[in-house]
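#dry-run=false #mode=assembly
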Amino acid sequence: MARINIDGAQNVEISKKIPCEKPVIEQLEIMENYTNAYKKHINDNKAIREIECLKTIFPVLFRSIEDDDLIAGRLDFLPIGFGSVTSIGGVGHYCVFHKLREFKEQLPEDQRYRVDLLYDFWQDHDIKAIYCQDVLNDTTTGRFIDCKYPLMATARLSGMMLDYKKLVGRGINGLIEEIEAHNTNEFMHASLEALHLFKQVIKNQIEKVDQAKQNANEQRIEQLEQMQADLEYILDHKPETFRQALQLMWLYALCAGAINYGRLDIVLGPYLKHDIDNNLLTEQEAYDILRSLWKMIENRRTTVNGRIIVGGQGRKDVEACDLFAKICLRVCKDTRYVEPQFTLRFDQKTPKDIMDLAYECIASGATYPTLYNDDVNVPAVEYAMRIDRETAKQYIPFGCGEFVIQGKSVGTPNTLLNLVKILQIALNQGIDPMDRKYKAGPVFVKPLDRFKTFEQFYDQYKELLDYYFELSVYAQKHSYEVMNEEVSFLFNSILMDDCLKRKKALLDGGVEILGGTNETYGNINASDALYTIKKLVFDEKKYTLDQLNEAALHNFSGYEKLHKDIMSLPKYGNDEEECDELANDLFEYVAKGIRNKGIDNNMDYYLIVISNNQTNTDWGHETDASLDGRKRGVYMNPANNPQGGNSKNGPTAVLRSLSRFNAKYHGGSVQNIKFTPRMMHEDKEKVKALFRTYFKNGGCQLMVTVVDHGVLEDAQKHPENYPDLIVRVAGYSAVFVNLTKDVQEELLSRTLYD
Amino acid sequence: MISISNIERFATHDGPGIRTTIFFKGCPLHCPWCSNPETWSVIPVLMHDLKKCTSCRRCEKVCPAQAIAFKEGRWTYDQKKCTQCKACEEDCLNEAISFCGQPYEIEELVKIALKDQDFYIESHGGITLSGGEVFMQFEELKQLLKQLKKHDLHIALETSGSYSNQKLQEVVNDVDLFLMDLKHIDPVKLNQVTGGNGKRVLENFKYLAKEHPEKVIIRTPVIPRFNEDKETIEAILDFAKDNHIAEVDLLPFHPLGKSKWIQLGKRYPYENEKMMEKEKLLPYIELGKQKGIKVRIGG
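#status=ok
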């Protein structure tokens, strides 16, 4: 087979990255050093190779401390290096080819050949390239993001949220002792070296503080000396104060390439309370430090990550945690950044003052916190992941909304399915009408005149879905195999149960729960299309299936009356029993299908997530007209929400539809709703009651955009006037004017409640 | 069957809490500022939106009664010929034609009303029956109220008060709140401009004020050149005070019904009038306070 070229965008990137502060030649040298270390250790154990490579980028890639930083630690990354996720660099030993090409342009002509050498070498060694070579093909499975395929697959280690409680509880030396006691294999040996390298990073930060002091004023010097003292302390002790604990956690997350941080109230709340109780810190100082953290997270610009989660069940020192949560809520409201994705877990027992603060933050237009209902999610996760209740209480959403268990599970979404495309293939004897290619594999797809009942057609669709589930679980599992073949993810492994005890790397049998998630797209377009077929063909017998399909193949051009009949049918999102039930039926089929495939293939869990980045728009462009009335190339429905413009019965009805799917079958689902500031303020108590009822009725999650009539339209025309207009795309927030026109249009199409 | 023009869930302007508002068709008044003129007649009415019409003439062709015709390129409609078959509505690809008004069984309406019951409970909301004038379909109204009350729903009526006191007495025990219009304190002026029976309105107010003052909120749409003068509004506040009615809602004039008048083929009498600034009415909050009346601007 020809070499698969994976040069191209590999992730959704809205926020503009801050360029590396080093001169380009120095950057090139670092990438060459990295490559040389890799080559030198190419035949060594993967853990040894990894640590030797890491030594070439740490601490050298750390940036200098900026004037208003209150904690130390800013890190650059290059087109070649080591990482976990595509949002910052890449996965394992990576090369991001299109970024390397861009980098080349910055070099003097006579130096560019050096990049070509690197490019050629990494084509055979970049983990993602190796993976794609195995998994991708010309028909069913494409690279993320290449939207011509019904299935997209990728290798990444997204959503790692480490056991920072263990880190701060033991300190670096505590971890070193644990490893030294069982230092019997190369993984453990490399892990030990990783912690010594981590100490080098801290020492380097101390030097950087010294540099920062040189031109600082008196007040700033005081801050920097505090920072330096904290760094020196954590080098050899476990942290004693809030600042020290945060500093240690932050630097470790940077080294691990972790871009989601998890339940920081549990990790940091007790230190915060201790410091405040003992007059070591004022609340204002804590606010300033957290504000600085917010800024540093924003500056990493990972677009769809940066999760900080507070609240919810399974916390020991609730008072301390809530104290932390309240300060975060203030910071979140005041900063209005798109990251961190600040998230509140809550249940019926959450204090009213926290819920009210959260509401005020949302009403101010911050789009945060996103709300997660523990009364629903904890038992749901317990069932979905097949774990006990206490473990389930440690669930956390990452990225666009996938759940993992902090410090215990891997749940990266390495597969994506387009349910609409698969439906169209079922309607066209295995051919995708968008590019006329056959994409049904071994499944015999019958011609339309064979289907005498709706169930017969639905069964055909399900048969094809089953085939894709099979491809999906293979792609997911294989991503772990390939990554495990190449790397140990040392920094991640050290803080994930039960790698050190088992003396095994994360994907080598180390992690306690090896799960995974499959993003599904076009869920509602597909179910509404099925509803059209059921009503117009089989119930009312108004059209034949062939007539409907012909109309769709013609993009409904010349079939306007038929299109009107489709659009007049009830649609999901309006609390209409029959079509909502069909949506639920399809959801359960897909969710259970994927979950069972995971169980059958010995995964601890494999679950669908109904999330969204902007893939609903990108994939929509490559998806033909569908029988829910959606035209060719138009965006698909966002996450679990109806197609834009289709919810017409108001927010109670849409929320009732949205709370319909049983959360125990999925690994995260995203629900968006959009209100005007007028409604959020003048009808505050009514909106609060609306949310409370939704959650009581089984709503698992909600995120709210608050925006005025006409503002988004005006922002399209005059982007310069709206630098901080934040909107919820689905699984993440973004500055509206940074989005592309097509994604902006999709957001505009959504119903705004006033 | 009840003729209904619209059902709005999550209505937030028609009484306390989250509500579902059911708009009845039929009204004995014809207020020139009316924002729901499509509710005047009990039977369905055709609305034609010129902005959406592309003059494709499908409606003309499909109409079996020749009620629709293009004359000199202009769309025309003869209501007398129309048999309400709705073929034109179904065939119009641009949604330029719509019939306003649909018959509902009582049970159907109850079912819809109950859909958001948990939201009402959480927010102390309920059902509002509005219109039009709900008393125009009086027998049906009584039946619906009885059925809704079986489910222990909080029920508000939005009403003009322009009907016999006997009718009011028949329903009063099934209604929790009357959002009753007092468009003018002068019965003659009220009659001249709106066609309502001013005497009956005042009589009904007095009856409710005597028997159930806690069930009444006065609603006054504040209309330019009709009742916007201080004297009239103060008289309404005094009326509330004298009759122990605790709340008066002043609804600033808005021209948002204009497009509906045009779609019905009628000229909107306030076509050049701008939306009234809410601020203009704010002083009445203070004035109300002095009289012991809660004045709210907007509903």
